[in-house]
């Protein structure tokens, strides 16, 4: 499994489409352990680009703060699970909480 988290200054970026980088976290689904974490520069923002780009990166799950409804639809169409309303924490913290079933998400912080 590969989890993508939009980041800025090392923490989850609240606006998904305008983040600096993505943390791509590889997880062994059987052991629920992280096997690798890569930070990659986000491509230049273009509507509709990120769903295919992240799919090409092998992403299965996205943990985000805020994301527009159109983007969420495009990710669902690409068979990528999206969790919105996550807090601005370190990627390793968010992934651990997701794997442990303790990730608390709130309101989607994006209104478009």
How would you sum up this structure, described in words?
The chain is globular and about 35 Å long. The chain contains 3 helices and 6 strands; from the N terminus they run E-E-E-E-H-E-H-E-H. Strands 1, 2, 3, 4, 5 and 6 form a 6-stranded mixed sheet that branches. It has one domain (2-100): Nucleotidyltransferase, domain 5 (2-Layer Sandwich). The protein has 112 residues and is of the alpha/beta class. 24% of the residues lie in helices and 29% in strands. The mean pLDDT is 91. Strand 5, helix 2 (69-77) and strand 6 (81-83) form a beta-alpha-beta unit. 29% of the residues are buried. The longest helix has 10 residues, at 91-100.
- Structural classification: alpha/beta
CATH domain fold name: Nucleotidyltransferase, domain 5
- The helical percent reads 10-25%
Q: Can you tell me the CATH architecture? A: 2-Layer Sandwich
Number of helical regions: 3
> How many DSSP-defined strands?
6
Overall average residue pLDDT? 91
Structural domain tally: 1
What is this entry, summarized?
It contains 3 helices and 6 strands, in the order ββββαβαβα. It has 112 residues and is of the alpha/beta class.
């Amino acid at each position: 499994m590969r989890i993508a988290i939009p980041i800025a200054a090392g923490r989850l970026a609240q606006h998904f489409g305008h983040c600096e980088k993505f943390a791509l976290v590889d997880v062994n689904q059987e052991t629920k352990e992280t096997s690798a974490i890569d930070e990659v520069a986000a491509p230049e923002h273009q509507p509709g680009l990120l769903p295919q780009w992240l799919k090409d990166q092998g992403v299965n799950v996205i943990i985000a703060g805020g994301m527009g409804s159109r983007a969420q639809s495009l990710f669902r169409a690409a068979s990528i699970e999206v969790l919105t309303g996550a807090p601005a924490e370190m990627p390793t913290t968010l992934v651990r909480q997701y794997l442990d079933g303790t990730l608390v998400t709130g309101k989607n912080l994006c209104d478009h």
